[in-house]
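Researcher: Please predict.
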Amino acid sequence: MRTRTWVLGLTTILSGLYAGFCVAYALTVMPGLAETDDETFVVTMRAVNAATPSVPFALIFGGPVVLGVVALVLHRRQRRTAILLAAALACALGTAAVTLLGNVPLNGQLARAGDPAVLRQTFESSWVTFHLLRTVLAIGASGLVAVASAGARERSALALPA
């Protein structure tokens, strides 16, 4: 198997994992926490935020961007694949931007001492909005990489020009 095939495959897997992480959070964690009292909400979100930075999460979060760039460079001569990968990379960069400029600063605010009701009020709605945006972008990135991957394999198997 060629390097570009492996890179595209890993990009597809990591993009799917990140999209799945975002979807699961949007469909289960945040709706579940919405039903809790302020103290439970704040304590739980602080614990989750403290547990999130890890090597596995860094690979899942950063992998679609880093490998997306590599995949795009390796497939630059396959016009259709390159266009799909460029769009996927734009979505992946969007998820990173929303996370780093939206969710992470809110996590920092939540980490400060204060009245749980006030902390929650200034956090929850904005955080959920940013999270839904990055979820949509992550799904877009994953779908575009999957389509690019399927198309690249099809053209490779049929020996069609890119």
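Model: DSSP finds five helices and no strands in the chain.
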